[in-house]
TrEMBL record, chains A, B:
Residues 10-81 form the Transcription regulator PadR N-terminal domain. Coiled coil: none annotated. Residues 94-175 form the Transcription regulator PadR C-terminal domain. GO terms for molecular function: DNA binding. It comes from the Bacteria. This is DNA-binding PadR family transcriptional regulator. The keyword DNA-binding applies. The lineage of its organism: Bacteria, Bacillati, Actinomycetota, Actinomycetes, Kitasatosporales. It comes from Streptomyces achromogenes. The keyword Coiled coil does not apply. Pfam families: PadR, Vir_act_alpha_C.
Length: 183, 183
DNA sequence: CCGATCATGTAACTCGTTACATGATTAT
DNA sequence: ATAATCATGTAACGAGTTACATGATCGG
């Protein structure tokens, strides 16, 4: 149950955003570690409004096709603070790439290298993007408490992408030696 | 669509496993990077059998409560090989812990440290477990192609857990300075 | 016999995904 | 006008989760 809290966070970071505004920010920013489609976001905005956690800003529009901006209500901010401090078990991992390598150990690695190279390239691009954001938004020097936390989260992204580029490079180096169908 | 392929891999690694055998191995081993509950596994075993990818070993038992062992059929092995080599886009990330820190940047970090310490301890234990497995199953020396791939996957787990323990330590070091509700 | 546990399954629900529908606004 | 795109939704489905049901086996 994290999507409503992701939306509350995004709405507090930028009040009076619309569904589409939020959708765009779930393609970057917040979306780097919690993705969501516009269908999910509209559904969840409806629920959050029904629960009294957010409200649509008054604008007497007949809805469909018209922009609709929201703001977080005190109850929504309280719920987000509660959730942030609450104990939560880490979700079990699911990584299709690691699973594929384990499968390749059984059925062979034929044809696998092309997609590994593609993934390596994707991770390199993501890493470059994170580093640009870091230089733009977190230049060296005095930071507010808020900025330090945001920078910490960004560094997690940078270090994870760094890991994946290194690991994929290593995997590709091991692959050709192993090539060909066994059995 | 990775669960059926995770099951095919597990079944090829150890043929004539039952649903419960598989369930137990999805709590470790394969489950370290693709978790699944017994309900998911039984449902998927039914589908894989209906598709002709696996078959129940003959044992004339009336099913309910009786052990039922499966083996992978040639069509299942072919499907696994196809899936392993096929291009697949990486799934968008979802990390509740990073989301919580981003939320904490907005609503404050009060009460967050306890759960961060708990997560740190969990990651330390997981790392220790991976290192034990490495020493037990991959001692230094000549490896088969299969063992080298399996070791590569395990090293990914080790390096990811290493990252999280370091990052959480850093996060906890930054936290107290920031403490208290803003606003 | 009886409870614990092994083993297989059903049912109901939520979350996420994919495809499609509909109205409003803007540029040509 | 009309095509593109902005903006908000509906519908159907599949994967994953939680709670429960049922039969078999084994130790006391």
């Amino acid at each position: 149950m994290s999507l409503p809290h992701a939306i509350l966070t995004a709405l507090l970071e930028r009040p009076s955003s619309s569904g589409l505004d939020l959708t765009r920010r779930f393609d970057r920013s917040i979306g780097y570690f919690w993705s969501a489609t516009h269908q999910q976001i509209y559904r969840e905005l409806g629920r959050l409004e029904a629960e009294g956690h957010i409200r649509a800003l008054p604008a007497e529009q007949p809805a469909r096709g018209q922009k609709k901006a929201y703001e977080v209500l005190p109850a929504g901010r309280a719920e987000l603070a509660r959730w942030t401090a609450a104990a939560q078990d880490p979700k079990p991992h699911r990584d299709a790439l690691l699973l594929r390598l384990r499968a390749a150990a059984v059925v062979g690695t034929a044809g696998l290298d092309a997609d590994l190279r593609r993934h390596l390239e994707l991770h390199r691009r993501q890493l470059a993007e994170y580093r640009e954001i870091e230089q733009r938004d977190f230049p060296a020097g005095a930071d507010s408490a808020q900025a330090r936390l945001q920078h910490l989260v960004l560094r997690a992204g940078i270090e994870l992408e760094t890991f994946w580029t290194q690991w994929l490079t290593e995997a590709l180096a091991e692959l050709p030696v192993v090539d060909g169908e066994p059995g």
